[in-house]
Model the fold of this input.
Amino acid sequence: MLEIKDLHKQFGEQKILKGINLHVEQGERHAIIGPNGAGKSTLFNVITGKYAPTHGKVIYKGHDISGMHPHRITRRGLGRSFQIINVFGDMTVYQNIRSGVLARNGVFFNFTSYLDGMKAIEEESRRIIESISLSDQMDTPASEMAYGAQRALEIGLSLTTNPDLLLLDEPGAGTSKSETKHTVELIRKVTQNKTLIIVEHDMDVVFALADRISVLYYGEIILTDVPQKIKENKKVKEIYLGEATCE
Done:
């Protein structure tokens, strides 16, 4: 599904990514972990086209998408969420999701009133809202929702692109323990038959979801393995997880 070859990214003289090599299989749930400043968000931004690589390639479904504009990458079936919540606060849940469905279909806000009655648009919007368990808040403005519900809504927005590969940037950030548990179940549900790459600091989320984990340490992937091997690895414990987490 995704292959990254000798990927480098630098800003001026500062080297952020230093020769990343990574492959993610179709249907895999792959987590990327590492300390602050390791380059995780930069890697996501290069994959999704916000930044062009300084060197190297990003291959998606066999096609080189390196440096391609984000909207073109999205149309190829790659969706993402952000570390900071990125929803339309003054719009309801339904309006948020419908805006994404409309955009994917090439229709924008000046046509919204005309399309209100279009059955296909409405049905798809409601189906996504149901999948993220927000049907009971369909008419609630996003700004009035609890933080965990806003996180769920952002995942819903990423689903409006109908992605085959979904990138989630710290979906558990800022959530309570009960909200995090709900988020894990939500992600597991909505990523069935999809490929997932997740950046996350909460190791409970990582170990609950990931088939494989890559450890990014100051611009380099030092290890990729199954969760149990990551837990047992001495170097990973030293630089990131901590002994107590891995007991």
User: Anything to note?
Assistant: The chain has one domain: 2-246. The domain at 2-246 is CATH 3.40.50.300 (Rossmann fold). The longest helix spans residues 177-190. The beta strands are 2-11, 14-24, 29-33, 55-60, 63-64, 78-80, 165-169, 195-199, 212-217, 220-225.
